[in-house]
Amino acid sequence: MLRSIDVSPNEIHKVRHLESNQGLRAVVQYNRLRRGLRAIADGYSAHVKYADCYFDAYQLVLWGRGDDVRALVVDLVAKLSLARVEEFYYERCQEFENIIMYCERTYTIKHSLEPIKLIARQLYDRPVAARWRKVRLCALWHRKFREWFLLYEHARFVPDGPGAAAAQAEFYALSS
What's this model's pTM, rounded to 2 decimal places? Predict the structure, then answer.
């Protein structure tokens, strides 16, 4: 036996207002904010629309997702603290703070959380972060030394170069 449907057929296909898709809009804005902040962290600030990032962060805080915004920024700041030199790091932290200013002024104060600047300072001053920055610099220098060594070897063995002259002298010494 079939049960009757409580909803009329016209109600099923009714067009919903944009506000009813707030969850989807929040996900889209969060992803757009994440991409923008990641581009800033990677040093591509010129390609980011700051007004869009600020608007996305503002809307997310209004919709009660300030914790997601802060978690995103803290995660990026923590990763940057392991790899970047101090000047670059604090410039990016200032840009992040400018973008999530509304979150810092309302959500952080309302929930008695530490400001992003203080968290950034604590993350950068960790001993493990200092060690990782040294490892990263050593790896970068090691790569540079390998590139320079190849260039040096290439320059040594050009015709009439010191490597070619030494090889010629060794060849004649062995042949006689």
Answer: 0.67
